[in-house]
Q: What sequence folds into this?
């Protein structure tokens, strides 16, 4: 191969790398903007702890928090009202949670996604971090995420 062709190929490869680098910079900027927009719902004194989890280089640590960021509640429960804050107990749990957790259950009453421990390949009993929703006391279930709205609360029988 002639020197000119080798130089041209090297230039093409360098161009592809610079395009990829620009894409990575744009993706990083978009991620940073998503994180900052999400952190407004976190109590101020816990924002740094949640940011550390979201930006961790350890996939297992970042995954559960990112799952929460991308879908913090059932579709029918969004958007959050202005000034909304996640329940403090839940945020504290997520900030210090074991690496393997996800937010796979939603509250049947308010739609908040509630964290649960996760073990790949193991059929485990209910491993919810909160047996009842830390926001409203409702029942967290997998099905609530796909519901069309809150589950009606059965009326107490009158005596």
A:
């Amino acid at each position: 191969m002639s020197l000119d062709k080798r130089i041209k190929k090297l230039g093409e490869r360098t161009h592809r790398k610079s395009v990829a680098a620009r894409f990575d910079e744009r993706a990083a900027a978009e991620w940073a903007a998503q994180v900052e927009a999400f952190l407004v719902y976190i109590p101020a004194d816990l924002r740094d702890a949640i940011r550390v989890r979201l930006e961790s280089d350890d996939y297992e640590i970042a995954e559960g928090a990112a799952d929460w960021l991308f879908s913090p509640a059932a579709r029918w429960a969004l958007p959050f009202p202005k000034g909304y804050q996640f329940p403090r107990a839940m945020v504290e749990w997520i900030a210090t949670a074991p690496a393997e957790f996800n937010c796979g259950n939603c509250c049947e009453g308010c739609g908040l996604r509630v964290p649960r421990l996760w073990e790949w390949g193991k059929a485990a009993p209910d491993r919810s971090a909160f047996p009842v929703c830390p926001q409203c006391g409702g029942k967290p279930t997998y099905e609530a995420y796909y519901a069309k709205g809150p589950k009606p609360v059965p009326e107490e029988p009158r005596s």
